[in-house]
Structure formats: structure tokens, C-alpha cells
Amino acid sequence: MAMTVTSIAVWISTGTNSTAAGQLLLNGGLLILLPTSVVTLVLVIRENQNSSRR
Length: 54
Fold this sequence. Notes:
The chain has one domain (2-53). Helices cover 89% and strands 0% of the residues. The protein has helices spanning 2-14, 19-53. Helix 1 packs antiparallel against helix 2 (19-53). The mean pLDDT is 77. Keywords: Membrane, Transmembrane, Transmembrane helix.
């Protein structure tokens, strides 16, 4: 996962393709990364609440 993000960032920074394509990739990456990080946060918080109740 991290490798893919890194390679995309490198690909965008090198500017091998048009800026529009880079923006699309960047936005697409953010759209994928944000929900997954939010879900992970929610799961971690729920786990903490469950363990603190015991």
C-alpha cells in the first residue's frame, strides 16, 4: 500500500504525464486513503472502549 502511494507521488512529481492526470490520481488516492484511515480510527476507538469497559 505504502509503495503504491510512494510510486504515485513520484510519478506525479516527475510530471511524466499531464497535470490533469496527476490531479485525478492525487484526488483518487485521497478518496481511497481518507475513508480507510477514518474506518481504522473508528475501529481502534471501539476496541479501546471495549477494553476499558472490562
